[in-house]
Amino acid sequence: MAARPSRNLKNLELQMSQAEDYDDWLDLAHAHDVETGADLWRQRQDSNAYDSRSISTRLARLRRLRKKGDDKGLLFALNEGIHGNMAGMGNPALYRKAMNGTKHLIEDYVAEICAALEYLSPRRFKGILWGERIEFF
């Protein structure tokens, strides 16, 4: 039998349902995650729901390539690894546990993908020919 939600948890959920804006809701969602322990779950990389080792390795590779300016290597790494279920990170179970997001590793990985795409996207970028980048994008 599941434990009944605490009074504080019920109060947080009520406040979340009445939040005036997203920032207020997000603050309450964080408090909810602290109350339920979901914040600790988000911090732990390991889970049976996805391959955290693979994501961690890919994240380190993307960061390393972008930092050293290996533009061709970065484009290749992006080309081989952008899809919604990379190493199981599209598993719905990873998005039901916490109110305030999913595993920090997944969020960091997605943020790095975005940063790499933004890095490669300017029209005047000199590292890779425009046509090659257009074909990729």
Structure description:
The chain is an all-alpha fold. The protein is 61% helix and 0% strand. The protein is built from 7 helices and no strands. The longest helix is centred in the middle third of the chain and has 17 residues, at 52-68.
What's this, in brief?
With 137 residues, the chain is mainly α.
Q: What is the terminal separation in angstroms? A: 50 Å
Tally of DSSP β-strands: 0
Q: Roughly what percent helix?
A: 55-70%
Gross morphology is elongated
Question: What Rg is obtained from the alpha carbons, in whole angstroms?
Answer: 19 Å
Q: Which whole number gives the mean pLDDT? A: 92
Question: How do the helices and strands follow one another from N- to C-terminus?
Answer: HHHHHHH
Biggest sheet details: none
As residue ranges, the low-confidence spans are none
Class from helix and strand fractions: mainly alpha
Q: Give the DSSP E fraction (strand runs of 2 or more residues).
A: under 5%
With helices defined by DSSP (H or I, 4 residues minimum), what is the helix count? 7
